[in-house]
Design goal:
Its main location: other. The chain is an alpha+beta fold. It has four helices and twelve strands. The strands form two sheets. Strands 1, 2, 3, 4, 5, 6, 7, 8, 9 and 10 form a ten-stranded mixed β-sheet that branches. Strands 11-12 form a two-stranded antiparallel sheet. A hairpin with a 2-residue loop joins strand 1 and strand 2.
């Protein structure tokens, strides 16, 4: 897996995410409350910190959480920061590409992403991962700054009737936000993100029972037969030249890389 490059994930890609989730070397614990722990680590030469969260939810099953994260229709209900999402298409039954736009608090400008999601369900252990890619039909939207997810991943393991979740994320929002501010805000927001996801997962069974209860293409690949197929030729890495609105509201002509 390389940022900006679309393609089928290999076993080694999933192993890398699993190792990041399970390994503790180089991680600094920055928050601890009950079963919830937040860690941070600088990866390579990036000035944007990678964060890791670990938590146990005894009343949310692994499958329930996996379905919550996958279901795009439900995300519109619980993720109030997302303003737009498009399922662009699938590469194969375990890899798809989508477009996402999110709002930000003033004076931070809205961000958008083109993400490849890749998942592996081995029963008691489930992985859902993503990284930024490019697509000809989805350049940065007007008024938005293209952000880059270097890597994110959810590792979900069964634990009795509940589950253990480890979440890693390494994202550069782009634009002119100071990197130290990005790192500080991310550390504060991480517990809140977990709380929001937990509440969403608790409410998912009731919501799903009323909204296409049998539609779960991430678990039933035959439901993907009518989904658009990704043309990888449209996903070649590139630099986007866009009119960037900086965080103070002025405009400048700038090159904003998406890979």
């Amino acid at each position: 897996m390389r940022v900006g490059v679309a393609g089928v994930w290999e076993d080694s890609d999933y192993a890398r995410v699993r190792n990041l989730c399970d390994g503790m070397e180089g991680w600094e614990e920055v928050y601890k409350k009950g079963s919830r722990s937040i860690y941070m680590q600088t990866i390579g030469t990036s000035s944007v910190t990678m964060f890791k969260a670990k938590i146990n939810w005894p009343d949310v099953s692994a499958q329930q959480l996996f379905d919550t994260l996958h279901d795009g229709d439900y995300r519109h209900k619980w993720d109030k920061h997302m303003t737009k999402s498009v399922d662009i298409g699938i590469i194969n039954p375990n890899n798809d590409i989508g477009y996402y736009a999110i709002r930000s608090v003033t004076p931070i400008r809205p961000r958008d992403f083109v993400l490849q999601r890749s998942w592996l369900d081995s029963g008691k252990e489930k992985l859902l991962c993503s990284h930024s890619v490019c697509h000809d039909d989805y350049p940065p939207m007007a008024g938005h700054i293209r952000a880059t997810t270097l890597l994110s991943g959810y590792l979900i393991r069964e634990n009795g009737k509940g589950c253990d979740l480890t979440y890693v994320t390494h994202t550069d929002p782009g634009g002119k936000i100071p990197k130290w501010l990005i790192n500080r805000v991310s550390k504060v927001m991480a517990p809140k993100v977990l709380d929001k996801l937990y509440k969403a997962a608790l409410g998912y069974p009731e919501w799903k029972a009323k909204n296409r209860p049998n539609w779960k293409p991430w678990s039933y690949p035959d439901q993907l037969m009518e989904s658009p197929r990704i043309e990888l030729a449209k996903c070649m890495p590139r630099d986007y030249v866009q009119e960037v609105m900086d965080e103070s509201g002025s405009e400048e002509e700038n090159e904003n890389e998406s890979d």
